[in-house]
Amino acid sequence: MHASFLAVLSCVSVSAQTPALLDQHDLVWEVAPARWLTGIPLANGDIGALVWGDGAPLKITLDKYDAWETREAPLDLTYEQLRQLVRDEKREEAEQAMRTKNLYGDGPRPTRLPMPRLEIDLGGAVDWGRARLRLHTASAEIDGVAADTPFHIELFVHANENLLAIRLEGPAAVRARFSLGLRHLEAGAKDTLERWGYPAPAVAAGDDKGSLALDAPTGYRYAVAWQRHVSDGGNAHTLLLSLLSSADADDPLAAARARVANPETDAEAHRAWWAAYWTRSWLTIPDARLEALYYAEMYKLGCCSRPGKFPVTLQGLWTLDGGMPPWAGDYHLDMNVQQSYWPVYTANRLELGEPLYRAFSACLPRWQEQCRAFFDFDGIWSGCAIGPKGERIYGYSGVELWPGNAAWLAHHYWLHYLYSQDAAFLRDQALPIMRLAFLTYANLLEEGDDGKLHVPLSYSPEYGEGGFSAYCKDPTCDLALIRFLGKAILEASAALEASDALTERVTSVLERLVDYPQRGNKLMVSAGTPLGHSHRHHSHLMAIHPLGLLSPDGTDAERALIRGSLHEIRVHGIGQWTGWAFPWMSLIASRAGLGNMAWQMLDTYANAFIKPNTFHVNGDPRIFGVSLFEYEPMTLEAGFGAAAAVMEMLIQSYNGRIRLFPSVPDRWHDAYFEDLRAEGAFLVTAKLERGDVRFVKIASEAGRPCTVVNPFQGGDAELLALDVADAGPTPLTGDAFTFDTHTGGRYLLHRAGRKPDQEDLSPLRFPRAESDAYFYGLKRLPRF
């Protein structure tokens, strides 16, 4: 029987399943995307292209991660000065203390730069036929009629080099004319760049090739070159476009021109990269729309975060066409960056987090200096809104003050260790930032009359909108971050079997730290401040998710606190929420075991807060009535949070336990996933069918003991070691099963006395009606 299990399980192949699964979730545009906001997104972790327009002309907005204005202003303020302003109730001075004139004045400040647009004129009136974004190959196809003759266009941004390839077929290819420039910039953006000393770009244009180069006053330079190549007896025209910067080559213009002069595209290498990307894991759920959204978000994450490149910014590689980007297109460390990277762990794509750790570890020396200058003690202080090397962008006064920005970032380092069990990463990257973030808090704490340690003045993002009332004592989020950092440092020292000079101080702080502010089984925002109204930022619930300090595994009092806090959320409602608040609340509800609430949060998000191409727009512009915000600035973090929330309903792993299907809604009777990653470096495959878990397969990468909460509705289980010859089943009983594993070991769990057969072990696939396929993309008749 052991051999038959191996034979059946070997047929379960991620690579075999994903092409057909992804095919039904390709995004299809039945009408032309008339707005940038509804275009077709392509990217490779360094350059991006957003395809839109009706073909008269077809517009392609370009982007590059290192295209930044980086000049910044110094901060002339200290923590003690701010405390004095608050003590003296100098409301106006306190509110403006962190808002420098550079944020609203004429001086340059760090921001993403608006980028060129490529336009393709197909030589006449265009009747848009159909466009399709193929997720499996990260390529787009467009069909239509131009000047009464059909055309076919294929596009992709190469996975491995800064190359956009566009192949045009049909008579329109011969007539096609190309133009590249910054003429599309609105007056405000042009005026801003001119005030900041930006010259007009140098543009060269011809029928078959052209270029653009811009020299920024900071010394940064980028260049775009394009060239047409004719093949197939003149019936096919391929335009190659390269976008490079001074970070890529000493002479980016010469390098770009040399690249596009070579007609080779190596499309096979591009397809191979994406084929490998999709083999890492897969899942399927009965909700076709959320399943389609999950794969669209994982596609965009693969586009926007690559090893060796930059972390995901607010808009990723699709910065606003024609204007200065919302919120400078920067790195917001009070939620946006963190939410963007929540999916990488469970989705088994740990390598996508590499840009995060590399970029922000490089900022530690700067943050140490800033901490000494502002707080006058050792630690790190990042501010909230920053550029690629930590450049300060001043916004909300309170959130710029908050010491939790870098501390929350440190949580991602810890997650990488938990999911990878990489001891070298823990020692060299995670522990340094966690220690420094803890030092910041430890040095900030003051003893109160009660003998407890308190945070004297801080902020709870984004409560009070940066106003005077935002400054507070003992924010719940700060107390949660302190407890996380202390607990993680102690666990890290034990894992590394190394003494840590901070151990005694950590232990003392954790013993003396004041408890979370609470009233009537409800977590408060801060000491003396209950959640008084609908509020988009769930910072006071961080102890539930993402930190996992409060969970249903805890005491009766902790469970009551979780339930009471979520009840208060429902009392105040969602009217003041923006889009990203919903996936986060779905994750919080999942941790509380509230599957129906977790699903409803995601369903509301998918209804009201995304465009047909799945871009998150923060507000509720079509007025579903779920939010008072009606604006539509695009940011990406919410979609990535939604992908994480889908997986959280299927598998959770925190506090040393793996939980299978812990918060699926009542309506989900069936679900399947393969090779989702759990803490402890376990890859997990499981099947839920008719409300019953058929089997669980676990692969151990690090050989750690494995604990699984009993998923078999209270029944006993059997464990089979799949890679041990002639192994017999081991009986397992109780509410949770713990068993030893070895590195590379594979294990099968199933209900005792009901050995899974070939049908039980086969992957689930949901038959999708035509109405459920190709859910996203712009339709002639709206689908949602």
Write a compact overview of the structure shown:
The protein is α+β, with helices and mostly antiparallel strands and 784 residues long. Among the domains are: 2-15 and 671-761, Sandwich (Immunoglobulin-like), CATH 2.60.40.1180; 27-69 and 114-278, Beta-galactosidase, Chain A, domain 5, CATH 2.70.98.50; 72-107 and 363-557, Glycosyltransferase, CATH 1.50.10.
Description:
It contains 24 helices and 31 strands. It is an alpha+beta fold and 784 residues long. Among the domains are: 2-15 and 671-761, Golgi alpha-mannosidase II (Immunoglobulin-like, Sandwich); 27-69 and 114-278, Distorted Sandwich (Beta-galactosidase, Chain A, domain 5), CATH 2.70.98.50; 72-107 and 363-557, Glycosyltransferase. Helix 22 (595-608) runs antiparallel to helix 23. The model is unreliable at 1-13 (pLDDT under 50).
CATH class of the domain at 72-107 and 363-557: Mainly Alpha
Q: Determine the CATH topology of the domain at 72-107 and 363-557.
A: Glycosyltransferase
Q: Radius of gyration over alpha carbons?
A: 27 Å
Structural class assignment: alpha+beta
